[in-house]
Predict the structure.
Amino acid sequence: MIRTGAQYRDSIRDGRAVYIGGERVKDVTTHPMFKPLVDIRARIYDMQHEAATRGALTFEKDGEVNAIANKLPMVQQDWWDKRRATDTVLEDIGGIVTRVGDETVGEMWSLYDGQDVLNEVDPQFSANIRAHIDHVLHADPFHVSANTDPKGDRSKAPQDQDPDMLLHVVKETDVGIIVRGAKYETAAAYANQAFTKPTIANWGNAALSDYAVGFVCDLGSPNLKFICRTGFAGRAPAEDYPLSNRFDEVDTLVIFDNVLIPWENVLFYRHTKAATFIRSCLHRYSAFAFVQRNLKLADMMIGAALFNARQTGLDKQQAVQEKLSTLAVYREGINAHLTAAIALAERSPAGLLMPNQSLLYTGRVLACSQLHEMMHLARELCGGQICVTPDAAAFAAPETKPWLDKYYTVNEDWVADDRRRLLALARDMLNSDYAGHRLTFQLFAQSPPFAHLAAVHRNFDWDGPLQFAKKAAGLSDKVLLDTGRTPGDRAVNQWFSEQIADKAAE
Ligand SMILES: Cc1cc2nc3c(=O)[nH]c(=O)nc-3n(C[C@H](O)[C@H](O)[C@H](O)COP(=O)(O)OP(=O)(O)OC[C@H]3O[C@@H](n4cnc5c(N)ncnc54)[C@H](O)[C@@H]3O)c2cc1C
């Protein structure tokens, strides 16, 4: 089933306790700081029905139409389709939003891969994850991610400080568990459900812990409170800050003040092995859509920088061309990782098709770790005028307009209003509060940089380089290695085998 924008709006008008700027929000769908993102999410739902876009966003199976973003990936085409669906949305809305569902739903597929681990704990839990993946397909909820607790003093065990610093179970009942604590969750105030699980933790030797709990939280549950950071929308005119006013994804500290989680929503409980498993592969699928956002951001930076260089006639300078090329190298580096991750995709333990893990995780490090430098380069290319240009009101006011028309009209093709608009876009993308927030989002929202590198360490095939160096150095066979293949070879061999199998099937 696919929902409409109106159905989505109705679903979040459930009396939830949302606060922003110290005030209780009456209706999250109409509040000026939430409305722009609620409208975009509603637009994505409506695009699933519109003739021009439904082909890119939905698929039909057994007479039922479902969202491509929610489809379990089984074959390469599923990944091309997902990539196209995300592009279709971002191009339609004319900007970048990340936490709108396609980027978070994949976290549940990672747990689906851990059904063996869940079965060891309790077979009911593996039945629950299958049911939830099915539910997402058929009910089309807006699904977000909850990992990060306030955490408190990391030098102390949770039991030695306020125990709520990490979310934990306080009681078991016949109908479910009662949980207490808090999580940071982007978009939770206007979403339907969140896959909630422990943050990165060192469980030591403990096999069981009240803190090792994972569940799907219905965000309309009683006793939840959503305390949001102040939004960017409405702070300054939309003409001057076009991104802040339309694409701010409001982050929330979600308070769990003794919230009942029904047993059917519990995905694991008390077993640290399950918690460790999910942390080891949480972004196995969802990193793809996350990194894809960097690609779109790179496009926006390149576009703004190149337009500026063309407006000012600087695009013919070799030094300027080299800087533009550096941006292009960054963009194409991300593109290459994403494309190769699909082309060399791998089977998961549960039989799903994962993007090639080494390429995906190294691509995430490339995209996120270089972003600040690329933003700085784009800022440099756009020039100091992005932060000294007067606002739209000054361009319209009778006394100042003639002067600004004179100095901002570059030639007959580039009139003052277009130059002002381009500089406003560049300022909001590179210099504003929103720009800093987006950079921080890419740095942290899918775990911090050290965890990105840890994922590379777990997924890169170290044996290939060892083997190569072993031979070059003439090391003895006392040096034992698993394989004689390089990491690239391993993926390429799999690709060849699949091609041969496909040809045989034809
Ligand atoms: C814009 C934004 C949106 C977010 N959205 C979500 C969301 O939707 N859902 C969600 O669950 N979370 C979300 N987060 C939270 C995000 O996952 C955390 O910020 C991130 O996991 C880091 O946790 P922390 O902020 O508590 O930093 P800390 O854990 O305090 O870490 C700070 C720094 O300390 C160092 N450090 C800490 N521990 C280690 C270690 N073990 N090894 C090496 N270095 C270490 C690193 O330099 C690290 O960057 C969001 C964050 C941001 C900024």
Q: What stands out?
A: Residues 463-505 form one domain.
